[in-house]
Design brief:
The protein is an alpha/beta fold and about 325 residues long. It has two domains: about 140 residues, NAD(P)-binding Rossmann-like Domain (Rossmann fold); about 180 residues, NAD(P)-binding Rossmann-like Domain (Rossmann fold), CATH 3.40.50. Helix content is about 40%, strand content about 15%. Strands 8-7-6-9-10-11-12 form a seven-stranded parallel β-sheet, sandwiched between helices. A six-stranded mixed β-sheet has the order 2-1-3-4-5-13. α4 links the parallel β3 and β4. α7 runs antiparallel to α8. The longest helix has 20 residues. The radius of gyration is 22 Å and the shape is elongated. The two termini are about 30 Å apart.
């Protein structure tokens, strides 16, 4: 079969996602045409593209229409995407009977690791204690710590039990948490199997010491976390967002955190991103910002290429594939 690397990120993006070992193995499995890194070159590359069977991509995959796929990629059988969400480009390919494979599960691993670490630190009161110690002194930090119950036996709320949410839940099983989950697509049978309590947003925000957002980002979920939820937070509760900022009405979160300054928010994502100049998040003592670092960074990115190599081997060998994305899955995926 014939393959091509395709992304607006150029060779650098490909080499980060598909390390030398992965590229060497792929080159023995397929004949590769020169990569396509500029969509404006699509007409000039038409002779190569008409013979492509498989696209290997990562962040920066081009958006193509159904008509473009039919015209330029008539032989295309599959797209292997060494990154997470395929929402922005997948549908025309699926409509063209091209199979889509995503490394969303690989990208879920570092997000889950990061989130688990934040949850453990939150339960110890780390975030506000560290800031109060530096800004107001040891005694003020200790006064705040008196509000914190620690991690043992505490309730943690997980919003969304998709790939990331489930990894976080599995990781938290190493600790003595009570885990509450909000996910309309999670069956009661599966919740029982996972050892979690399926419930609604109000109970989670009212009862849990720590709430972590992993809700899929789509039209139905944008703006769903609002003041009616944040105002229920316990006086020592921590809201963690490593999912998407669009689910949060930020003015409502600001209001709830201002009303009870011992609440805290740990935000790796915002909407828009980055946070706009002059936003209250920059000056609020109980808001902790990081620049979208929970997902794959540095050497972690190569894990996604490895996942796609294994998917290609399964695909080409007519074996079951683990990470294929279907049109039905797009309804609930991030």
């Amino acid at each position: 079969m014939n393959g091509i690397f395709m992304t607006s990120g150029g060779t650098k993006a490909i080499e980060r996602a598909y390390d030398r070992n992965t590229r060497d193995i792929l080159s023995k499995e397929l004949h590769f045409f020169e990569g396509l890194f500029d969509i404006n070159q699509i007409d000039a590359r038409k002779d190569d593209l008409k013979n492509v069977d498989c696209i290997f991509s990562t962040w920066g995959m081009f958006t193509l229409s159904h008509e473009q796929i039919q015209e330029y990629l008539p032989r295309l059988k599959a797209v292997f995407y060494a990154a997470g969400s395929v929402q922005y480009f997948a549908r025309p390919f699926l409509d063209s009977s091209v199979r889509i494979f995503s490394a969303y599960a690989a990208n879920a691993v570092p997000v889950a690791e990061y989130t688990t670490a934040q949850i453990l630190l939150a339960g110890k009161g780390y975030f506000l204690a560290e800031r109060l110690y530096k800004t107001k002194g040891f005694e003020k930090a200790r006064e705040y710590m008196a509000l914190m119950p620690g991690n043992y036996g505490e309730k943690v709320g997980i919003l969304g039990a998709g790939a990331i949410g489930r990894l976080v839940i599995a990781s938290l099983k190493n600790y003595n948490y009570q885990i509450l989950v909000f996910d309309p697509f999670l069956s009661q049978e599966k919740a029982d199997e996972m050892g979690v309590k399926k419930t609604d947003l109000n109970e989670i925000f009212r009862e849990c010491l720590i709430i972590s957002n992993h809700i899929a980002n789509n039209e139905n979920t944008r703006g769903m976390l609002k003041y009616e939820h944040f105002s229920l937070m316990r006086p020592n509760a921590v809201f963690i967002n490593t999912g998407r900022g669009a689910q949060v009405i930020e003015a409502d979160l600001v209001r709830a955190l201002t009303e009870v300054p011992t609440r805290a928010a740990v935000l790796d994502v915002t909407h828009p991103e980055p946070v706009q100049p002059g936003h209250p998040f920059y000056t609020m003592e109980n808001v902790f910002l990081t620049p979208h670092i929970a997902g794959s960074i540095g050497d972690e990115i190569a894990r996604m290429g490895q996942y796609m190599l294994q998917e290609y081997k399964a695909f080409s060998g007519n074996m079951p594939c683990k990470y294929e994305v279907t049109m039905e899955m797009l309804k609930t995926m991030a």
